[in-house]
Amino acid sequence: MHRDDATKQFHSGDDRLAELIDESQPAELPTPDTDVPMVSRSVRLPLETYERVRAAAEARGIGVTTLMRQWIEAGLADLDDSTTVSLADVRRALASLAHPTAA
Question: Where are the alpha helices (DSSP H) in the chain?
């Protein structure tokens, strides 16, 4: 059925449109990864940069936007001295202190 025809039927009180809606399968929507309200913003990246971000996200088993959000949050935390660092970074830093390299 064409959209205009469906709209006309709806406004004329035709029950067939309501019946079609009732019989349709519910849409499978993705589950949000957070309970916090989100704002969508568009970011323009060079292709090479995007591919590097995508590969980093895949390596971590998370989505690209989730990884970018984590990086932004970590950068903002650094600005206000409530720094968030990954456990892997902490371990690397401690390991480098335990075994200093010769300069």
Answer: 3-11, 16-23, 47-60, 64-79, 87-98
The answer to whether residues 74 and 66 touch, using CB atoms and an 8 Å cutoff, is no
| SS3 label, residue 49 | helix
Q: 94 burial class (0-12, 13-18, 19+ CB within 10 angstroms)? A: exposed
Number of domains in the chain: 1
In a domain, 49, yes or no: yes
Q: What pLDDT score does 21 carry?
A: 67
State both tokens at 98. 């335990």
The band of 97, judged by pLDDT with boundaries at 50, 70 and 90, is: confident
- CA-angle at 47, arms to 79 and 50, nearest 5°: 40
Domain that holds residue 75: 43-81
DSSP string, 80-97: TT-----HHHHHHHHHHH
